Structures are given as structure tokens and as C-alpha cells.
Amino acid sequence: MLTRFIGITGLKKSGKTTTIETIVPKLAEKGLRVGTIKVAFKDVSIDVNQEHYDVIRHRNSKPKITMFKSNKETVVFYNDEMNLRDSLKILGKNLDIVLIEGFKENLKGLPQITLLKEEGQEKEFTSDYTVAISSIPELSIKSRHKLFVDFDNLADVAEKTALPLFPELNCKHCGYDTCDLLMKEVIAGKKAVEDCYILGYENSEVQLKVNDNVIPCNVFVQDIFKNVITGVLTTLKLEEMELTNVEINISYKSKKEKKNE
């Protein structure tokens, strides 16, 4: 199953964090594996508390990744700048749905639930990516906008309208010039995720990924891959295992790396 993402947007103090705190346990009760992301609106750095200041010293030595491990939790720091899409790919592995808190400008290209802080903000704070409008109970804001949803129903909205990351290959097989245009049509209910030529193959028995991008394979090619791998497993006497998933990763050296050898 593809990991799906949805943003929770709105002005500062509009209740974005409160909304996520409310939605997460409701989704978890349905058996969904849920993740959350907070997108900061300014350049900040976060570390564990000062009792574990050695973590800061580790990070200051400029490794690529730092992990803090205790009996209570595990925290991983990626110590370089990363765009949102790349971070979503990392966090999204083995999750069903990810909720992302941020402003609508930060979450462009993702379906979004917009929270109102005051009446009359619908037009200003919605966009083609908006799937619902709501307000936390403390603010008691109501709206006649067609996308307005009661706060208590937002978990259901998130589950139904969250979408996987579109490939951004702009291959035009779907009939649109860009993946973004197709996504907007999916959000509007005019198209489905399966209309994406790439994502339509994501649930195939055989998936081919090149540089983390899915490459669609027709049934004939899938059968070739599957039969070859099954033959290899038979040679290794692994065919009697109860197989559910087999992964092969092949690394290629760049031309520059080969030249430097």
C-alpha cells in the first residue's frame, strides 16, 4: 500500500498542532500506521535536552547522520539541508498516512486541510490543494463554504483525501503536462490516483525503482523479473520458504567515481 500524505495548514495559533493531536489517535484506532511532520516557518535547529548535550557535540562534528538512543526513544538527525519531498520519502516508509503541519506555501503540491482562525478567511487561505476547511472547537468558527467540515470529522477526511507522492516525472501519459495538474484534478474529484501511469503500477507484484523513482513494467516484463528471481532462489534452496517479499538493490558508480578509481 502506498504511503499517503496530507497537510494541516493555517495561520499561527489557528490550531494546527491541536488538530494533529486529535486526528492521530483516531487514525491509529483504525489500525493505520501514522507519522507526523512539523515544517518550521523559520530556520531553527532542534536538539534533545541539555542533559544529553553530547548529542550536540556529535552534530557539531558534521557527520551525515546522528542518532540519539535511550530506553525511552530513538531520535535520528539528518545533519544537512533536505527538501520536503525527500524527507517525506524517508519518513513515509512503512507508514500508511503522514500528517504534515505547516503553512500552505510550504506544502504546495500536497492535499491540505485548512484551519480558519477568523471568519471570512476561506478565500485567502484556500487553494487548489485544499480538500477541507475547518476550525478547532475553541474558536467556534462556522462557514457555509462547500469544503467546510466539522472538526470532529477531520480524521475521516484525512483518511479519505490523503494522497501518495506523485512522481514529478511529467511524463504526460495521463494526458496532463505536469504531475501537479493531475494531482489538482484528483483533489477536485475529477481523476483518480490510478490515472497516473506511474502510480498505477505501484501495487504491482513487481516494482522497479531507479534512483528511487518507480519505473512502470507491463505484465510481460514483470513475469520475466519474477521468474528469474524465483530461479535464483531455487538455486539457493530458498524456494521452500514462505516468501512474501523479495528486494534486490543494485548500486552503480557514477562516471566521476569510476574516473577517480
Structure summary:
With about 260 residues, the protein is an alpha/beta fold. It contains 8 helices and 9 strands.
Describe the structure.
It is a single chain. This protein has 261 residues and is α/β, with parallel strands linked by helices. The chain has a domain at 4-161: Rossmann fold. 28% of the residues lie in helices and 16% in strands. Helix 1 (16-29) packs across helix 5. It starts with a strand and ends with a helix. The model has no long low-confidence stretch (mean pLDDT 88).
How far apart, in Å, are the first and last alpha carbons? 41 Å
The CATH superfamily label of one domain reads P-loop containing nucleotide triphosphate hydrolases
Separate helix tally: 8
What's the CATH architecture name of one domain?
A: 3-Layer(aba) Sandwich
List keywords for this structure.
five-stranded parallel β-sheet; 16% strand; two-stranded antiparallel ribbon; 9 strands; alpha/beta; 261 residues; 8 helices; single chain; Rossmann fold; 28% helix; globular
Chart the SSEs and their pairings:
Elements: E1 4-10, H1 16-29, E2 34-38, H2 54-60, E3 65-69, E4 74-78, H3 84-92, E5 97-101, E6 112-115, H4 122-125, E7 130-134, H5 154-161, H6 179-187, E8 208-210, E9 213-215, H7 219-235, H8 255-260
